[in-house]
TrEMBL record:
<keyword id="KW-0969">Cilium</keyword>
<keyword id="KW-0282">Flagellum</keyword>
<feature type="compositionally biased region" description="Polar residues">
    <location>
        <begin position="145"/>
        <end position="161"/>
    </location>
</feature>
<keyword id="KW-0966">Cell projection</keyword>
<feature type="region of interest" description="Disordered">
    <location>
        <begin position="142"/>
        <end position="161"/>
    </location>
</feature>
<dbReference type="Pfam" id="PF03963">
    <property type="entry name" value="FlgD"/>
</dbReference>
<protein>
    <submittedName>
        <fullName>Flagellar hook capping protein</fullName>
    </submittedName>
</protein>
<feature type="compositionally biased region" description="Polar residues">
    <location>
        <begin position="1"/>
        <end position="16"/>
    </location>
</feature>
<feature type="region of interest" description="Disordered">
    <location>
        <begin position="1"/>
        <end position="22"/>
    </location>
</feature>
<comment type="similarity">
    <text>Belongs to the FlgD family.</text>
</comment>
<dbReference type="GO" id="GO:0044781">
    <property type="term" value="P:bacterial-type flagellum organization"/>
</dbReference>
<dbReference type="InterPro" id="IPR005648">
    <property type="entry name" value="FlgD"/>
</dbReference>
<keyword id="KW-1005">Bacterial flagellum biogenesis</keyword>
């Protein structure tokens, strides 16, 4: 028996009006293991362990110690990040009144005197005339020679190097 496929209607593959499709939900996996996840794994491990051979107490103590170490490292990392942010603020504040060399928004190397600092984002912004320069864009610092204080009646100008 042969079937003539030229007479078979082809069903559409696109959804028709009135048909509701749900978008696929993408789940991003956790990149870090936190204390809660660790405890959940430990409780699950204890829950499903073989009663005839329970978990060794030294193994349990080792896992508990790992949890404590992980929590201490997490706290230490946070303290280090806060310390670094404070160091950036102190370093940027010391630049006020100094001549600095930096790369401006056009990619040119420029020199100017620091007027002020802004702490809006993670990295302090150094204000030099009309330029707003991230602290990490400063390439060099030159100490101002005594007696070369700029005239307060003229605005700070930047010069290209």
């Amino acid at each position: 028996m042969t079937i003539d496929t030229s007479q078979v209607p082809i069903m559409p593959t696109t959804p028709q009006a009135g048909v509701h499709t749900t978008p696929a939900v993408t789940r991003t996996p956790k990149q870090e293991m936190d204390g809660e996840m660790f405890l959940n794994l430990l409780v699950t491990q204890l829950k499903y362990q073989d009663p005839s051979s329970p978990m060794d107490t030294t193994e349990m103590m080792a896992q508990t110690t790992q949890l404590a170490s992980m929590e201490q490292l997490t706290a230490l990392t946070k303290v280090n990040q806060e310390s670094f942010a404070l160091q950036m603020r102190v370093a940027s504040a010391a630049l006020i009144g100094q001549d600095v060399t930096f790369t401006n928004s056009h990619g040119d190397t420029t020199t100017g005197r620091v007027d002020s600092i802004r702490y809006d984002g993670e990295v302090p912004t150094v204000i030099i005339g009309d330029e707003h320069v991230p602290l990490n864009s400063i390439a060099g610092i030159t100490a101002v020679t005594p007696g070369t204080t700029p005239d307060p009646s003229t605005p700070n100008q930047t010069t290209q190097a």
